[in-house]
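User: Second chain of the day. Same drill as before.
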Amino acid sequence: MVDFYTEATMTDPQNKPTSQQPPSAELGADVANLRKSYERAALGESDSLADPLAQFGHWLQEAISAQVPEPNAMTLATVGHDLRPSTRVVLVKGFDARGIVWYTNYESRKGQQLSGNPWAALQFHWVELERVVRIEGRVEKVSAEESDAYFNSRPLDSRIGAWASPQSRVIAHRGELVAQAARYGAQFLLQPPRPPHWGGYRLQADRWEFWQGRPSRLHDRLSYRLQADGAWLRERLAP
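Assistant: Same format as last time:
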């Protein structure tokens, strides 16, 4: 939690201490007073589907129909060997009974963390619908054929960018990226192959949670846990 100080001691041109309210204090007060009442919808057991994947598909389609900005954007959380968690936003590119799929650079920070710890979590936050979906499970790489098919469907600039960007590594300046893009563009022209360090991941979910905002902070939370027999146990969680 960030502490916002109400006073700060400063020095005037004659080296006399003065007291002045820092801008962060006013900002902190404004942030503390930000509130919203969630009243758009409810989520009851009778309203939800028994299969969490089907429930997710239903909610995702509603987010798309509502023209929510980037409804396919999700936060991906991973943990490295040093036990430090990290998050970033990626785009879901497919989902079915096998899991949730996205594509990225295998040599990025997330790729390195997943190689050492294949457990991860995803979160969708559709603010306009007052909904959150959380997904947990084990991650594996998709097949080379799947990665090739998706890579070849991408715009040309994006395919060149996959070669040009050493994702998560320190670079001297943006010009370095531009120069690399020009280099690979000239090398591959209109047919860049998929880089060996780029491809898809699939999260095989064993836990889901669907959150619907409700008034008075008495939100609806439905949890699904995969059982040993392959069935899903649906439970209500306290908000």
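The radius of gyration is 23 Å.

User: Great, on to the next one.
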